[in-house]
Amino acid sequence: MAELSEMIYDRGLRDWEFEPAYNATMEDMDLEKVQAFITRRSASSRQSGRFKNIERVLIGMRCAVEVRPGTIVPTNAGMLFFGQSPQDHIPQSEVVCVLFRETVGASRYADRKIVTGALQDLIDDTEAFLDRYIAVGARIEGWKRIDIPEYSIEVLREAVINAVVHRDYSRRGERVRVFYYPDRVEVHSPGLLLPGITVEQMEHGEVQSKLRNPVLAGLLSNIPGYMEQIGSGVRFMLDETKRMELPAPQFREMSEFIVTFYKAPALRTPQLRLQYKGGTLWEESEDSHPEIVVQNRHAEQIENRLIKALNYVQEHGFITNGIYRQLTGVTDRTAHRDLEKLVERGRLKGTGQRAARRYILA
After folding, report:
1. H helix runs in the chain, sequence order
2. pTM for the predicted model, two decimal places
3. What residues does each domain of the chain span?
4. Which residue, 176, 173, 180, 155, is CA-closest to 165?
5. Which DSSP category does 102 fall into?
6. Radius of gyration of the CA atoms of the chain, in A
7. In whole angstroms, what is the distance from residue 183 CA to residue 127 CA?
8. CATH: 2.20.25.90, 3.30.428.10, 1.10.10.10, 1.20.120.30. Which one for 297-361?
9. What is the pLDDT along the chain (362 residues), one digit of tens a residue?
10. I need a labelling partner for 3 at 20 to 30 A (CA). Which of 32, 166, 210, 352 fits?
11. 91-283 fold
12. Quick one: which of 118, 76, 21 has its CA closest to 212?
């Protein structure tokens, strides 16, 4: 594992971690969790005598700060890692997981979970949501059955870890979102790539590690099973998908950073689809056909327009009323109503007033 001292980060981009958490006191910290962490770290470093004053240790780890003599409060990093209820103070730190029945996500979701808790909880509970829906196909080679998972859960977990550790937490109102479609999984992380990192470098696994949140990364690296890939997480995702004969992840940078994982090609035949039934995805037989439920032709036309809008946003990063009218040929009033419908469904988020309103992925 690379040492944190070898990591490169921009001092100007890390101030959020060191700021006092909003309206938080030391009573909002889970001191049992802090003590367990300190005990584990001191045991490994053989310096147990140094860690008798928990508050001073937290200050040393940049998880607390003395705002005035005698008054110590948690920092944002400390609250997110050790807080009893971090989202009370950092509401943008939750993770939204959504399961869709169709590939665009224009319809209402089939399942949705708001993941809250400390950093480890965000990672573990998001992984559990994804693992719940990953199907496993199979092929027969000779006398052997070869399992074909839709995705590598280890790779998806790595993407989630990267998202919650390296996202831009200073962007209030923006959350990590994980979208599970029938043909792909997308992990959306608020914030753009740090200077010196490009999408092209990531696609080739030639990324020099930079840390937007070095405190969070350092804390998580002390817990086995989370940050073994420090400095090589992208390379791990590329190598593991290749080893499992899965499509390589795709990286995009728009108003945020997006990683997309596509389903195993062998499980993307036109005769097969995954259907949500009572909390489980079931694979239909080859001779079955997708059931299309359309109340009337007018409703079908609306859904087709909404799909065009979402496709455009996924490609260009945003859409406006005027662009939507050009795509669909509808009136200004209809365009406004359609786009707001996607806002109500939780697929888009509108910013600005009506005349200059832009819509981005929610």
Report:
1. 15-18, 31-45, 54-60, 76-82, 119-133, 153-166, 199-203, 214-221, 233-243, 297-316, 321-328, 332-344
2. 0.77
3. 4-82, 91-283, 297-361
4. 176
5. S
6. 23
7. 18
8. 1.10.10.10
9. 333 333 333 334 458 999 999 999 999 999 999 998 988 876 655 544 444 588 899 999 999 999 999 899 999 999 999 999 999 999 999 999 999 988 877 777 889 999 999 999 999 999 999 999 988 766 676 777 767 778 999 999 999 999 999 999 999 889 999 999 999 999 999 999 888 888 898 888 887 777 899 999 999 988 888 876 555 788 899 999 999 888 999 999 988 999 999 987 766 654 333 333 334 443 443 443 333 333 456 677 888 888 888 889 888 889 999 999 999 998 988 888 889 888 877 788 888 877 788 998 87
10. 32
11. Heat Shock Protein 90 (3.30.565)
12. 76
Query: Which structure tokens are listed for 341?
Result: 């419908």
Q: Give percent helix, percent strand, percent coil of the chain, each to the nearest 5.
A: 40, 20, 35
Q: How far apart are CA 26 and CA 99, in angstroms?
A: 37
Are 222 and 40 in contact by the 8 Å Cβ rule? The answer is: yes
Q: Which amino acid is at 266?
A: A
